[in-house]
Amino acid sequence: MSELKTRTITLNGVETRVWEKGAGAPIGYFPGFGGTPRWHAFLDELAKTRKVIVPSLPGFPGGGLGHLELHNHLDWVIACGDLLELSGLSGGDLIGVGFGGALAADIAAVFPQKVRRLALISSYGLYDEKDPITNVWAQRPGTVQNVLCAKPERFTELTAMPNDYDPTEWQIEMVRASEAGARYLWPFGNTHLDRRLHRITQPVLLLRGSEDKVIPASYQEKFAAGIGSNAKTATINGAGHLAELDEPEAVAKAILDFVK
Amino acid sequence: MKICWFHLMPYTDLPEDFQKKHSSVWVDIDSRLFDPKRAHHMYNDFMDELEFAADCGFDAICVNEHHANGYGLMPSPNIIAATLARRTKDTAICVMGNSLALYNPPTRVAEEFAMLDCISGGRLIAGFPVGTPMDTCYAMGQNPSSLREKYREAHDLVMQAWTNPDTFSFNGRHNQIPFVNIWPRPVQQPHPPVWIPGGGSVETFEWCAEMDYVYSYLSYFGYKAGLATMNDFWSKMAELGKDRNPYRAGFLQFVGVAETKQEAMKIYKEPAEYFYGRCLHVDPRYAMPPGYTTEETMRRKYQSQVAAVAQKGEEKKAVSGLGTPADMSIEFIEQEGYVILGSPDEVAEKLREVAINMNVGHLMLLLQYGNMSKDLTNYNTKLFAEKVMPQIKDIFDDKWEDHWWPKPMAKAERAVPAPTTREAAE
């Protein structure tokens, strides 16, 4: 496996970090709550056989203040579509988790040529008031990891400050990541994706952790029904909402088998 | 010195075990605790208290806006202000205020404030709060990431609506209106004085300086905790080349006056402990929606915490204004300065010190709090007006002019409410 490479691209005038590791056909990753503040085990699993490209979403770690340039959902979808082009992911396979899933799904629906195969893990984008999503922005301070992961320490490790970082700036970046998600998903995560799911014609894998405390199981069925016969579903036992943090090997295997 | 009488209108019948059985006084407070027939009496008592304060000679009576809140029963303060405009004569009416981003479109605020200014003959103070996270983001669903830009845009729209004599179109990001032309227009020209309630963020200091608005620090935690913020405010004014006119600022303070301090500790114990216990029992899950606090303010806050830790070698407790310490006894409340309690002379001396040390020309006083009865509220109000007010009224007036006070129509020009009775008409 090759070393982790860092590139900088410019998206809407904002310097944006792109991480890349491995060789083979490219596969992209749009993360969930908290973004990708550090490279983690799941990405290494993928990089054993594929070139993994992780562009920073606007406002998420590495994405600067790019979220402030985006004022509506169309802005977000176009910006993240451009992000695929600029980071060398266009036409490749794409993984979207939680917050990132809502954008990945919309890009697949609106710009079908940009995505070959799509893997969604507990994606946002729909909302059912009879079976509501847990509000990740209404958790008591210091407890959000308990709803995000079956192994909460995995999220704590992901967001722990690196040794060489300014503590103030690190805290601000972590809040900014949450704000960036809120900017396009507040308050329910409902982007009315239900109206566009039928436009997704690529093969889609819908994954969900069996212990997901954020998005109820019924949403996986709603996604599958909305997309149609090109969607298949699978459950990752023992994983929470950010399933790839809880069970990196199992999630990577399911996705790599699917995109083969 | 201007002395303003402020009412939050707290629900006075929260049960004794409220903190044990309920998670929050705000946002998801249990509506089954609300008895509308009791609220009928509360509202009427509260309005009586405000009118009594006006009658006692306070410079202004103040109301504010909260939503889904057990200590603030005014989702629409303008409704209360309208009754006060009719029932009071000379007192300024301070609406502190309308959370601009919550009005769709915000021309509604320009219209209603203009109505109030007309009805009252130019006695309105127009407050424009951003609104708390609990009110705006959770109870009213606003996006914390765009709340402040929406607020600023709404402010610009209201100001243009008040000051542009021609019909105009407004092409904003959050509001697009083809014909803005409010009718009525405010009595006070170019517009009523604008006061901005704030929580200590430096951007708000700067904006008030730039716009020449009053900055009013509405903290429930008294002068001891508030001094640092007001010092920061005046440092920023100096940096921006603004004078130290104390009327640029307002500060909220709870007060309880009695014949002696001992008596004050005794009679205000229950309402103060009710407020700082039951009324401030806010679930912290609703305190920090991401993006509500600007990054610059976060940066200053974190840095001051890091500095405090370095200096004291201990973790400094963050003053978030939320979450109540376990022991909210009257002794603690008094000792921390949350409520100033004492005899008229003691209270006057303390308030003089507060006003001068903080350099604040507009004292916003809470003389009713928690479940304080109408009788006790009126006692507090009357004793304050008779024995405290005369001792502090003169502060600053020899040196500074209040440019941020309403300029009503001359008294002789103003209407006197005179509804004709049916009997008289016959």
Quickly list its features.
heterodimer, A: alpha/beta, Rossmann fold, 8-stranded mixed sheet, 35% helix, 19% strand, B: 426 residues, alpha/beta, TIM Barrel, 8-stranded parallel beta barrel, two-stranded antiparallel sheet, 11 strands
Describe this structure in words.
The complex is a heterodimer of chains A (260) and B (426). Chain A is of the alpha/beta class and 260 residues long. Helices cover 35% and strands 19% of the residues of chain A. Chain A has helices spanning 41-47, 73-86, 98-110, 144-148, 152-158, 167-185, 218-227, 243-246, 248-259; strands spanning 5-11, 14-21, 26-30, 51-55, 92-97, 115-121, 204-209, 231-236. In chain A, a hairpin with a 2-residue loop joins strand 1 (5-11) and strand 2 (14-21). In chain A, helix 1 (41-47) packs parallel to helix 9 (248-259) and helix 2 crosses helix 3. The two termini of chain A are 18 Å apart. Chain B is 42% helix and 12% strand. Chain B contains 15 helices and eleven strands. Chain B has a single domain, classed as Luciferase-like domain (TIM Barrel), CATH 3.20.20.30. The relative contact order of chain B is 0.15. Chain B is α/β, with parallel strands linked by helices and 426 residues long. The A-B interface holds A 67, 71, 137-141, 167-168, 171-172, 175-176, 178-183, 186-187 and B 137-138, 141, 143-146, 173, 283-291, 295, 298-299, 302-303, 306.
Rg of chain B, Å, rounded: 21 Å
Number of strands of chain A: 8
Oligomer: heterodimer
Principal-axis shape of chain A? globular
Q: What is the number of independent domains of chain B?
A: 1
Query: How many beta-strand segments of chain B?
Result: 11
Strands of the largest sheet of chain B, in order across it?
1-2-3-4-7-8-9-11
Quick one: biggest sheet of chain B? 8 strands, parallel, barrel
Give the overall pLDDT of chain A as a whole number.
97
CATH level-four homologous superfamily name of chain A: Alpha/Beta hydrolase fold, catalytic domain
How many helical elements of chain A? 9
What do we call the CATH homologous superfamily of chain B? Luciferase-like domain
Distance between the termini of chain B: 48 Å
